[in-house]
Specification:
Blueprint (H helix, E strand, L loop, with lengths): L1 E2 L2 E2 L3 H21 L12 H12 L9 H4 L2 H16 L1 H12 L5 H11 L7 H27 L5 H16 L20 H15 L2 H13 L4 H25 L11 H13 L16 H13 L12 H15 L5 E3 L2 E3 L1 H28 L5 H12 L14 H16 L1 H7 L20
Helix pairs in contact: 1-2, 1-4, 1-6, 1-18, 2-4, 2-17, 7-8, 7-9, 7-10, 8-9, 9-12, 11-12, 13-16, 14-15, 15-16, 15-17, 16-17, 17-18
Length: about 450
């Protein structure tokens, strides 16, 4: 549509277009000979896949990051992770701050949409704090990891590895430099690496709005309903999934069985945290039992929380649906959390996001069974949900994908990062209220 002779894009269209342009630019930079150690650069399809995975903070890779890319290539990936994790609008605002430019109303609306905030009030202040929070978490995480890695490698390399993995995991990207697709399996029972990375993943995944309210709690002494739901849902999922993984893998000789009790706990904790769209792993994913793999798919589909660096349908969506089901079972008309009623538009939106997500997973998995003949369905489903949830965990299918399969996963990662609802709004006309309402009708359900 046009406005005063100029093309005007709704916020969803701007976000979808912006992410797409960043991905194309990143892919071009990774095709340059200087990006890879063999001096040939990546093929266009592999560069597009890697750029999409980094910008959409997924972590699925078709080539090993540590052994394929030069320092230049790795820094390109790291920049894409940072821009993709925080959102290009956040970085655009940062440059506006540096140049002393005033943030316009249109830019504030774009920021609101990008951060999934409920209003534009205080949005610029929130962006400033997001930048500070990010700097603090990534610096402290990088410092602690660098100290630990310094015992295993030269100091300069340890510092580089420490900050690369801190930025990657705070943004829930899951890219690593360990080589040979090993991720962090060499530190499966290391308490410092496990706890630092888990902390980065959790705080990167609960959302900046929640982090900001945690920061302000000493003054306000209260949390919004959104923050309460995120914290409770996240805590329940982390505790429950740690216990479930511990039980399911306890006697698995390829995973937990050889470890000490503390090692079993740390590995179970990490494996419960990383499906929340992080992608790093300390246990070899193909070695997990089928039950654990299927449970991991469930966690990956839920994903992180709104306004975070993660993907999935989001914890609040999951909590809202559970609340709606529970209210129906109890014969209640309203969905209530903490003595607050959840509005029907939130319930409808949760149902829409989940339905679109399930539809995407169903279609992509079906297509991959065609393009990747002979592969186990569980492996295909795992890779599909990992891409949609921008997780990055893999059973080993991604490097062996056909060219068409790689394009399908690229589109899935893009849809998962931008958000199914945002894409739906971007490709449809501007939303309008119904001019009239039809008489009520009844449909039998169940």
């Amino acid at each position: 549509m046009k406005k005063k002779g100029k093309f005007f894009l709704d916020p969803p269209k701007v976000l979808v277009t912006g992410f797409a342009l960043i991905i194309v630019l990143g892919a071009f930079l990774l095709t340059l000979p200087v990006a890879t150690k063999d001096g040939e650069g990546l093929s266009w399809i592999n560069a597009l896949f890697t750029s999409t995975s980094a910008t959409c903070v997924t972590g699925l890779v078709v080539v090993d990051t540590g052994t394929t890319f030069t320092i230049y290539g790795q820094l390109v990936i790291l920049a894409l992770i940072q821009v993709g994790g925080l959102g290009f609008m956040t970085f655009a605002t940062l440059f506006a701050f540096i140049l002393g430019k005033r943030i316009s109303l249109k830019e504030r609306i774009l920021l609101q949409e990008s951060l999934n905030n409920v209003s534009i009030e205080g949005i610029v202040k929130l962006v400033k704090r997001i930048l500070v929070f990010t700097l603090v978490f990534e610096f402290l995480g990088g410092l602690l990891l660098a100290i630990r890695f310094s015992f295993d490698m030269p100091l300069s390399r340890a510092i580089y590895f420490g900050f690369f993995h801190a930025i990657s995991n705070f943004n829930n990207a899951g890219f690593d430099l360990m080589g040979e697709f090993r991720s962090l399996t060499g530190y499966v029972d290391d308490p410092l690496v496990t706890l630092v990375v888990c902390t980065l993943i959790v705080f990167g995944g609960i959302g900046f709005i929640v982090i900001n309210e945690l920061y302000e709690y000493r003054h306000t002494k209260r949390f919004s309903l959104h923050t309460k739901v995120v914290l409770i849902t996240t805590s329940v999922l982390l505790v429950a999934s740690t216990i479930i993984v511990f039980i399911l893998e306890f006697n698995n000789t390829k995973t937990l069985q050889p470890l000490s009790w503390s090692g079993k706990f740390l590995a179970s904790l990490f494996q419960s945290v990383t499906p929340r769209t992080a992608g790093a792993n300390t246990l070899n994913i193909p070695d997990l039992t089928q039950t654990t793999l299927f449970f991991t798919i469930f966690l990956m589909f839920i994903g992180a929380s709104p306004g975070s660096t993660g993907g999935g349908i989001k914890t609040t969506t999951f909590a809202t649906l559970i609340g709606a089901v529970w209210s129906q079972i109890r014969g209640k008309e309203d969905v209530n959390f903490f003595r607050r009623k959840v509005t029907y538009d939130v319930i409808y939106k949760s149902l829409t996001v989940t339905s679109i997500g399930l539809f995407i997973v169903f279609v992509v998995a079906m297509l991959l069974t065609i393009t990747e003949p002979g592969k186990e369905f569980l492996m295909i489903l795992f890779e599909t949900v990992s891409a949609f949830g921008t997780v990055g965990l893999s059973m080993g299918l991604t490097p062996d994908l056909s060219p068409i399969g790689r394009i399908i996963i690229v589109l899935t990662m893009f849809a998962g990062r931008v958000g199914p609802l945002t894409i739906a709004f971007a490709i449809t006309l501007r939303r309008q209220g119904d001019p009239f309402h039809y008489p009520k009708g009844k449909i039998m359900i169940g």
